[in-house]
Amino acid sequence: MPLRRRQLAGLSALELPAPGQAATIVLFHGYGADGADLAGLAQALALPRPARWLFPDAPLSLEWGGRAWFPIDAAAIERAQRAGTPLDWSDSGAGDLERAAATAGEFLQALGAGWGDLILGGFSQGAMLAAELALRAPENPRGLVLLSGNLINAAAWRRLAPARRGLPFFQSHGSVDPILGFPGALKLEALLRGAGLKGRLLRFEGGHAIAPEVLESLRDFLSRLV
User: Fold this and answer.
1) What is the pLDDT of residues 34-54, one digit of tens each?
2) CA distances (Å), 25 to each of 178, 196, 210, 211, in order?
3) Among 138, 156, 184, 201, which residue's beta carbon has the most beta carbons within 10 A?
4) Residue 186 in contact with residue 177, Cβ under 8 Å?
């Protein structure tokens, strides 16, 4: 079945439909991309059972053509790359991230799926948005996928995470990621596992990307949930 374009709660999204009882997987793209950036995963992962996939476009349009869920300090990232020292994002993002989550939360509500049928995830900025949504949810979603994300909004996440005890999560990160450093991924894993969420960080030799070995492990994770 081909992807189709949907408009839900003010956001445009690519959707791969599935039967009514199937799990719903929502993946949020990274800064500067759009929903089409991750849409190929629906076919590439070839899950053993049908799932409804959605890939929404972020609401913010960037001047050079990409999209974003919330603003970032691109100049700070460039300075950190030149210095070879990863930025620590853990105390950043509160207001902008929470506003983005409010917009994305309306999109999730418009889907008509219960939290127990939702698997939330994303890449980079989208991963951090997915974590914010999952941690603020009224109950556990079915699963959480964090591809090349970092710990941000740490004070709120430490307060919220214990309510998500038992939530299965998948996390991956490149060991030499020049944009969102590996130490930030380790901090995120420690917070989630320390609060009782069930998962582990998959480290791969690479940068800000989704490596082939990540796809294999992600397929196994999602196959158990759908």
Assistant:
1) 999 999 999 999 999 999 999
2) 28, 22, 17, 20
3) 184
4) no
What's the rounded Cα separation, in Å, for the pair 82 and 77? 9
Contact 106/13 with Cβ under 8 angstroms?
Answer: no
Structure tokens at 66: 């990409």
Q: What is the pLDDT of residue 102?
A: 96
pTM score, whole prediction: 0.95
Q: Are 28 and 104 in contact (CB under 8 A)?
A: yes
Q: Which long-range contacts (CB under 8 A, 24 or more apart) does 158-163 make?
A: 158/191, 158/195, 160/135, 160/136, 161/135, 161/191, 161/192, 161/194, 161/195, 161/196, 161/197, 162/195, 162/196, 163/135
Rounded (10°) angle between helices 94-111 and 125-136: 70
Residue carrying structure tokens 């929470």: 98
The total of structural domains in the chain comes to 1
The residue-averaged pLDDT of 207-220 equals 97
CATH of the domain at 100: 3.40.50.1820
Q: Find the domain containing 217 and state its range.
A: 4-225
pLDDT in tens, 182-212: 999 999 999 999 999 999 999 999 999 999 9
Q: In 3D, which of 56, 217, 28 has the Cα closest to residue 124?
A: 28
Contacts of 101 (CB under 8 A, 6+ apart): 129, 132, 133, 136
